[in-house]
Amino acid sequence: MSTPTPPHLVLIDGSGFIFRAFHALPPMSSPDGVPVNAVFGFCNMLTRLMREHVGTHLAVVFDTSRQTFRSDIYPQYKAHRPDPPEDLIPQFSLIREATAAFGVPGVELAGYEADDLIAAYARTVAEAGGQCTIVSSDKDLMQLLGPNVDMLDPIKQKPIGPTEVEAKFGVGPDKVAEVQALMGDPTDNVPGVPGIGPKTASALINEFGTLEAVLEAAPTMKASKRRDSLIEHAEAARVSLKLVTLDAHAPLPLPVDELGLRDPDLAVLGDWLDRMGFRSVRHRFGLGESASPRPARQNVSAAREPTPAPDAAPYNEYDTVTDAGVLATWVAEARTAGVCALDTETDGLDPLQARMVGFSLATAPGRACYVPLLHEGTLDQPTGEQLDTATAVEILAPLLTDPGVLKVFHNAKFDVLILARAGAADIAPIDDTMLISYAQSAGLHGQGMDELAKLHLGHTPISYDEVTGTGRNRVPFHQVPVKRATEYAAEDADVTLRLWLALRPTLRTNQALALYEQLERPLIGVLADMEKAGIKVDAPQLRRLSDDFAARMTEMEGQICALAGRPFNVGSPKQLGEILFDEMGLPGGKRGKAGAWSTDSSVLQDLADQGIELPERILAWRQLAKLKSTYTDALVQEMDPSTARVHTSFQMAITTTGRLSSNDPNLQNIPIRTEEGARIRHCFIAPPGKVLISADYSQIELRLLASVADVPTLLEAFELGQDIHARTASEVFGTPIEGMDPLTRRRAKAINFGIIYGISAFGLAKQLGISPGEARAYIDAYFARYPGIRDYMEGRRAEAKEHGYVLTPFGRRCYVPGINEKNAARRNYAERQAINAPLQGGAADIIKRAMVRLPSALADANLPASMLLQVHDELLFEVEADAAKETAALVKTVMETAATLKAPLVVETGIGANWAEAH
């Protein structure tokens, strides 16, 4: 009699996967209009799993409700979890339908979480000598891993074993629950022990073996806040262990024998996939084409596998399209392809003012066309027939709005605004090759299409200068001959599509998919709306302010010339250098390559720090001159006269850290703490009946530093709402907070912010006006009190040296060129970048999360508010006056819950008739 083969049971964490799929994939709907992005992701995962990871038994495990036996132990368990997003709620039942359609058993049991059922099945199979594979990346399930139990990440398709668990928790799977009990879990409201983070928890468990042993040893530990916290919260830790330990003896809703793998009923599965509109899943499952209608909104970017060899086809022989029927044929071809690239050509760089001169379309590598619209010919080179813009946009409309066809752009925000100005409806879904690249290579290279084509395709596209000329010989694009315009513009669309084929798959391999899908891509529409909205300015007040600045500058020029001993052009660096270093003989002068003295701000600041009045006055004059030219003069020129609004342009792929930048005009560099800066902010106003709301993250980078470095005293100070700089001064210098000398607090503040930027003893000494030795003593004392911060800094340097980049707390890669430079100055600068980038980048990630969530939150609350500006850690809104307080409260909540740190996020809001009052 033969011995039965031990089962290999594959368990899919259905509840865990649906949330990950929902947030990883863009919105899409079934033909009936029901949201199905998570369902689509689930079906793709299940199809792949049944093809590549076949066991003998298979089941999907679901949660039933939040009320489980853990709620009886600790009523606050998961009590703070928000309700699921509205678009996710109908997908829970659809995923159960999908499970049945695929012929896979669905398992759930009231009073138990899916994790408990998974634990019980894993134990049962392991004890029978079988193998259990858990398809999930949930950290709570990692305690189950062992010789007969493994895990598979369904998104990354990577196995998770004891090595990965130890890298995450610092202990093996058998001790994961002990570590979780100590550190707690704010997501599930597991209390843990305050002040105990992952590193401390794993160190304690590795030293003492178990949670109970740690708690028993606590009274004998060296006096510290950690010891006191362990003693005070011992019972909470014991309760936490009960909450995080999975019940491996939970009842089995179905015996293992009934979970045997079986083929689905293909007719049932095909009908269900047709109802959902999942054509690509039908093909993957080998069901062929259906006669069902196209889905209402299919996310091709997630569903379609990229075609091979994007660089195989030649870059030439593009078509010029001047006939409506021919354009309709191209549109039909693009819709059949399911993915296409688009690019617009314009007569200006401002997408809110420029006209669309033409557009190009690519449907496959080497297959592209150009549609001229507004070209002006000459006697020698007549333009010939062209489509008018309205007709072309009307023909293009079914493609732009087809949810089953992905539209790929390079710098999509610009093209979307241009097409909207030309009369196009909202375009969806879209992808952006610039942002796809940026999400995984910020700081490594530029993100321009030409540079990426050379880098990834080995191709040098025709440059804009080659087509339009340079300098005085440059012509506007509408005067470029159509034949030449076709060669240039159609190639741009072709290159964009090839870049998409080459780069889209690398988002997953470079672990940047979630960053792109959840932050960068959704921001395209958010920022486009902000740019269209603009912000109202008080032009008369700006003119008065400009006149005042001019008068003050004239007065300052007289004082400067008096100090110099003779008249000279204050704005001339050459004349200033001659006075400072030739005539006055001041030290520290440096000549440039042309032989003239350097008088940049660093040179003048060095002289001003020595108490020399002339360079100090020059710096003040230059600051006023910059404010006048950049803001009070320029804002009036850049204002739309019909609306009295200025419309900045947000650059999405410039900085190494993920921060947005703005230009035309740049509204991010208005001084915050100066009188002049405040006066300029007074000129940004709300229209009658409305107000402005400013919402600003408080000390977000310090909160990130305290969180990632796990500094208990700083975390406690933030939790208690204490003055963080006074607390630091008290900790480092041993000075009581009460009655603290302001100078002592100032020194602590300089160190706190200096550490974020990797400040040196020399830099701190210069800032505080003390000797380098004294500054070094301050820094040493700081690190002695906060060793976790020193470890964080060393870790980032090492990370950068090893990989060439550092990661933000949310997984963004920030490349650090020069980290291995032999030149000490450049290497030291790169090391400072490595320390700061995760903090500045983490802050950028958090505010981007908030920006993505706020428009829908405001709309759902029916609040008449518009987001206008993002300036570093601040967001500015315009809202009806009678809804201001409610809007400010909602904005504060969304921003403060955009991420979960160990230190609480705090947002300060203000309301006013102008930006200065609100700020």
Automatic annotation (TrEMBL):
GO molecular function: 3'-5' exonuclease activity; 5'-3' exonuclease activity; DNA binding; DNA-directed DNA polymerase activity
Spans annotated as Disordered: 287-316
Pfam families hit by this protein: 5_3_exonuc (PF01367), 5_3_exonuc_N (PF02739), DNA_pol_A (PF00476), DNA_pol_A_exo1 (PF01612)
Function (record text): In addition to polymerase activity, this DNA polymerase exhibits 3'-5' and 5'-3' exonuclease activity.
EC top class, as a word: transferase
InterPro entries recorded: 3'-5'_exonuclease_dom, 5-3_exonucl_a-hlix_arch_N, 5-3_exonuclease, 5-3_exonuclease_C_sf, DNA-dir_DNA_pol_A_CS, DNA-dir_DNA_pol_A_palm_dom, DNA/RNA_pol_sf, DNA_polI_H3TH
Alphabetical UniProt keywords: DNA damage, DNA repair, DNA replication, DNA-binding, DNA-directed DNA polymerase, Exonuclease, Hydrolase, Nuclease, Nucleotidyltransferase, Transferase
Reactions performed catalytically: DNA(n) + a 2'-deoxyribonucleoside 5'-triphosphate = DNA(n+1) + diphosphate
Location of the 5'-3' exonuclease domain: 5-262
CDD domains the UniProt entry points to: DNA_pol_A_pol_I_C, DNA_polA_I_Ecoli_like_exo, H3TH_53EXO, PIN_53EXO
Matching SUPFAM superfamilies: 5' to 3' exonuclease, C-terminal subdomain, DNA/RNA polymerases, PIN domain-like, Ribonuclease H-like
E.C. code: 2.7.7.7
Protein name per its UniProtKB record: DNA polymerase I
Segments forming domain DNA-directed DNA polymerase family A palm: 677-883
NCBIfam families: pola, PRK05755.1
Subunit architecture: Single-chain monomer with multiple functions.
Signal peptide span: none
GO biological process: DNA-templated DNA replication; double-strand break repair
Source species, domain of life: Bacteria
Entry's family note: Belongs to the DNA polymerase type-A family.
Residue span, 3'-5' exonuclease domain: 318-508
